[in-house]
C-alpha cells in the first residue's frame, strides 16, 4: 500500500539520525558517562527501529492530531483581549510521545485544552485542530486527559479506585476478572503495588503522597488504552526515578498500543527528556521550537545558544526562554541579548527554518489521509454504570465521616434536647435539620469534582450519576430521618399513631432529599467552595423565611416573598403538612390558645385555619406528595444543570 507518510517520515528520521551522530546532546552535555552511554545507545536503538520500521500509518484505528495556526485569546474586562497562544502548528502521531515544554504560564495547559476540545467559554480560538485530517469531536474511548489536579474519591483504596474505574470504562462484554487483572497490572506498571490497599486520603487524612496520587490518576486514564492521551504534567511530584519509569511506561504504551501521547512537562531530567520523540517548546504562547526532541540541541546551538557542557539540555532551553526572572538571568544564556530579544530571535529563526517547513508539510500529509470518522468506544452499559456508581458512592458516603455520620450524631444530640411549643418544634425540626445539610457540602463538592473529571473523559452518563447518587444516599437519609425523628417524636409526645409517625418521618426524608439535591446543584454551579456554601445557606434562609412561620402566609409581602417564594419554598409544604399531622383530630384547652372567654375547648382544625393560616383545602398527604414531586423535579433540574454546566464551566 502506498503510504504518503513513509517518505517524509524517513526524511525527518534521517535528519534526526544525522543529529544523533554529529550533535547528540549526550555527546556534549555528558554529566554522567555511564548513564549517557546507556541513553545514547537507547536513543540510537530507538531511532534505528524507527528508521527501519517507521511508524506505519496504515492502521484504520490510529489517531493522529494536527493543528495549524492555532491561536487562543481570552477576553479581559480591563485590557480587552489577551493572547495566550499565537499561530501554533504541529502534530502528534501514533507510536510517539510529544512533549510540550516551556516556562510556567507559557500556555502548555491551554494548548492541551485546545487540542482536547476543552477550552472554557471565556476563551476564543482560531485555526484548525484536526483529528485524522477531519474536524471531529473526540469520541469516548478514543481520548483521555489526565489533568494537573488529582481528583480522586479520597476514601477509596488505590485498588478500589482503579477497579471501579475499570468497571465503568471497560465494556460490559469484558469479564470482571479480566477487568480486575487489567486494573492490577496497570497499578503495578505505575509502581504502586506497595500501596494498593492504602486509601487515597485527603481532608487531613494522609494517605498517598502527591506523586502517588499523580500515578493513580494516570492509571485510571490508561486503563482503556485510549488512542489519544493528553497528560498535563504527569511527572509533577515524582522523584527523578519515578518520573523516568512513568514516562518510560508511556513510551512503551505508545509503541505497543499505537497510542498518540501529548504531555506537558516542566523540568524533565536528561534521562526523561531523551525518551520523547518530539518537542514543542513554547514561550509566551509562541513556538520557539517544534520538531524531533534530539534536534533541539542543534537548533539552539546553530542560533548562538549552545548548551554548556555538564548541563541538562532541557534545563538549558528553559533557562534561555524564561522571562520571569529577567534581571537575575545570567547573560551566558542569552549571548548578550535580553531574554525577550533572545526569544524573538529564536521564534523568527524557527519560523524560517527548514524544520518548520518540514513540519508544515508533514501536517499537510497527515491531513490528506482519508480516514473514517472516529467511532465511539464501547463501555459499561447504563444499568452497569448505575450499579457501579451506586456501590462506589455508598462506600464513599459510609467511609466519609463528614458526609452523613457527623450530621446524624448532631441531629441525635439536638433531637434529644428538643421540647417546646408544638408549632415551633415542628418548624425547627423541618428547617434546622435540613439546613444542616450544609455540613455535608464539602463532601458534595469533592463528589462533583470527581464527577466533572470523569465526565470530561466520558466515563459515564450524567443520568447514571444522578440515579446512583439518589440510591446510595437514600439509606443514610432514611436513617437521619428515622432515628432523630423517632427520638423527638417520643420525647415530646407528638400525636400518637403509626400513620402519624410515618408521615412525620417521610416529610423529614423528603426535605432532606430536597436540600441534598439543592446543595448538589449549587456545588455544580458555583466556582468555589466558599461561594457555594454562602449561596446554599442563603437560598435555604430565604425559603425558611417565606415558608409561612416567621411571617404568617397572609402577612407575607406580596412581591418576592409571597410571589413566587412562598410557592416555591418546599418549607411551606413541610410546615403545613407537619402542622396538619399534629393538630388535626385533636382538641386543645381554649385558655392555652385564646385570651378571654368563649368555648372551653378549641379544635385543632380551627387553630390551623385561624392561627397558623394553613391551607385546609387539601389533605396533609397532598403536602407530602408535593414534597416528593419536588424531589423528582429537583433531581431532574440537577440532571439538566449538570449537562449545561459541562458545556460552559472550565474543566477542573
Ligand atoms: N480562561 C482563562 N482566562 C484568563 N487567563 C487564562 C485563561 N486560561 C489561561 N489563562 C492564562 O494564560 C496563561 C497560560 O496559562 P496555562 O495554564 O496554559 O500555562 P502553563 O504553561 O500550563 O502554566 P503552568 O506550567 O504554570 O501550569 C496564563 O497566564 C494564564 O493565566
From TrEMBL:
Cross-referenced Gene3D superfamilies: P-loop containing nucleotide triphosphate hydrolases
Region of interest called Disordered, as start-end residue ranges on this chain: 24-57
Primary site of residence: membrane
Record keyword Transmembrane present: yes
Record domain ABC transporter: where: 65-309
Cellular location(s): Membrane
Membrane-crossing segments per the record: 425-445, 466-487, 499-522, 529-550, 624-645
UniProt entry keywords in alphabetical sequence: ATP-binding, Membrane, Nucleotide-binding, Transmembrane, Transmembrane helix, Transport
Protein origin, superkingdom: Eukaryota
UniProt-listed InterPro entries: AAA+_ATPase, ABC2_TM, ABC_transporter-like_ATP-bd, ABC_transporter-like_CS, ABCG_dom, P-loop_NTPase, Plant_ABCG
Keyword Nucleotide-binding: yes
Family: Belongs to the ABC transporter superfamily. ABCG family. Eye pigment precursor importer (TC 3.A.1.204) subfamily.
Name of protein: ABC transporter domain-containing protein
Organism: Salix dunnii
Phylogenetic lineage: Eukaryota, Viridiplantae, Streptophyta, Embryophyta, Tracheophyta
Amino acid at each position: 500500500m502506498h503510504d504518503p507518510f513513509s517518505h517524509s517520515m524517513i526524511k525527518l528520521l534521517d535528519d534526526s539520525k544525522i543529529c544523533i551522530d554529529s550533535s547528540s546532546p549526550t555527546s556534549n552535555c555528558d554529566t554522567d558517562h555511564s548513564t549517557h552511554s546507556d541513553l545514547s545507545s537507547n536513543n540510537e536503538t530507538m531511532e534505528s527501529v524507527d528508521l527501519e520500521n517507521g511508524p506505519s500509518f496504515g492502521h484504520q484505528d490510529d489517531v493522529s492530531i494536527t493543528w495549524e495556526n492555532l491561536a487562543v485569546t481570552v477576553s479581559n474586562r480591563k485590557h480587552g483581549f489577551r493572547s495566550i497562544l499565537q499561530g501554533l502548528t504541529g502534530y502528534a502521531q501514533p507510536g510517539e510521545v510529544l512533549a510540550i515544554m516551556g516556562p510556567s504560564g507559557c500556555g502548555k495547559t491551554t494548548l492541551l485544552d485546545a487540542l482536547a476540545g476543552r477550552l472554557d467559554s471565556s476563551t476564543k480560538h482560531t485555526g484548525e485542530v484536526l483529528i485524522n485530517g477531519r474536524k471531529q469531536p473526540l469520541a469516548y474511548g478514543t481520548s483521555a486527559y489526565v489533568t494537573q489536579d488529582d481528583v480522586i474519591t479520597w476514601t477509596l483504596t488505590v485498588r478500589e479506585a482503579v477497579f471501579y474505574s475499570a468497571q465503568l470504562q471497560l465494556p460490559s462484554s469484558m469479564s470482571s476478572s479480566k477487568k480486575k487483572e487489567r486494573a492490577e497490572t496497570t497499578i503495578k506498571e505505575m509502581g504502586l503495588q506497595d500501596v494498593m490497599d492504602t486509601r487515597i486520603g485527603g481532608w487531613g487524612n494522609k494517605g498517598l503522597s502527591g506523586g502517588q496520587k499523580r500515578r493513580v490518576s494516570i492509571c485510571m486514564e490508561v486503563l482503556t488504552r485510549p488512542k489519544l492521551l493528553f497528560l498535563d504534567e504527569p511527572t509533577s511530584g515524582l522523584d527523578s526515578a519515578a518520573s523516568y519509569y512513568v514516562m518510560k511506561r508511556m513510551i512503551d504504551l505508545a509503541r505497543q498500543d499505537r497510542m498518540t501521547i501529548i504531555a506537558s512537562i516542566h523540568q524533565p531530567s536528561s534521562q526523561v527528556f531523551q525518551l520523547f520523540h518530539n518537542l514543542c517548546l513554547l514561550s509566551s504562547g509562541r513556538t520557539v521550537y517544534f520538531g524531533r526532541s534530539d534536534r533541539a540541541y542543534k537548533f539552539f546551538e546553530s542560533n548562538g545558544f549552545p548548551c554548556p557542557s555538564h548541563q541538562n539540555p532541557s534545563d538549558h532551553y528553559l533557562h534561555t526562554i524564561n522571562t520571569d526572572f529577567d534581571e537575575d538571568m545570567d547573560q551566558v544564556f542569552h549571548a548578550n541579548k535580553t531574554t525577550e530579544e533572545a526569544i524573538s530571535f529564536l521564534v523568527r529563526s524557527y519560523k524560517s527554518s527548514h524544520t518548520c517547513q518540514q513540519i508544515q508539510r508533514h501536517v499537510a500529509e497527515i491531513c490528506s489521509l482519508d480516514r473514517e470518522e472516529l467511532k465511539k468506544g464501547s463501555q459499561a452499559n447504563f444499568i452497569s454504570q448505575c450499579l457501579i456508581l451506586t456501590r462506589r458512592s455508598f462506600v464513599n458516603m459510609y467511609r466519609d465521616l463528614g458526609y452523613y455520620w457527623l450530621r446524624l450524631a448532631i441531629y441525635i444530640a439536638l433531637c434529644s434536647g428538643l421540647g417546646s411549643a408544638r408549632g415551633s418544634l415542628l418548624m425547627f425540626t423541618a428547617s434546622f435539620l435540613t439546613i444542616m445539610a450544609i455540613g455535608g457540602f464539602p463532601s458534595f463538592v469533592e463528589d462533583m469534582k470527581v464527577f466533572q473529571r470523569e465526565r470530561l473523559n466520558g466515563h459515564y452518563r450524567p443520568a447514571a450519576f444522578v440515579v446512583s447518587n439518589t440510591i446510595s444516599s437514600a439509606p443514610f437519609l432514611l436513617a437521619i430521618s428515622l432515628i432523630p425523628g423517632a427520638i423527638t417524636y417520643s420525647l415530646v409526645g407528638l400525636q400518637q399513631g403509626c400513620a402519624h409517625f410515618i408521615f412525620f418521618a417521610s416529610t423529614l426524608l423528603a426535605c432532606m432529599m430536597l436540600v441534598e439535591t439543592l446543595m448538589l446543584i449549587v456545588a455544580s454551579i458555583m466556582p468555589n467552595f466558599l461561594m457555594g456554601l454562602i449561596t446554599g445557606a442563603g437560598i435555604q434562609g430565604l425559603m425558611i423565611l417565606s415558608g409561612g412561620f416567621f411571617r404568617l402566609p397572609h402577612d407575607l409581602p406580596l412581591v418576592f416573598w409571597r410571589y413566587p417564594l412562598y410557592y416555591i419554598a418546599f418549607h411551606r409544604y413541610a410546615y403545613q403538612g407537619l402542622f396538619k399531622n399534629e393538630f388535626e383530630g385533636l382538641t386543645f384547652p381554649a385558655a392555652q390558645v385564646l385570651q378571654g372567654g368563649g368555648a372551653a375547648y378549641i379544635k385543632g382544625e380551627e387553630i390551623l385555619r385561624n392561627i397558623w393560616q394553613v391551607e385546609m383545602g387539601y389533605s396533609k398527604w397532598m403536602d407530602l406528595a408535593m414534597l416528593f414531586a419536588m424531589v423528582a423535579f429537583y433531581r431532574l433540574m440537577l440532571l439538566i444543570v449538570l449537562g449545561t454546566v459541562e458545556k460552559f464551566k472550565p474543566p477542573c
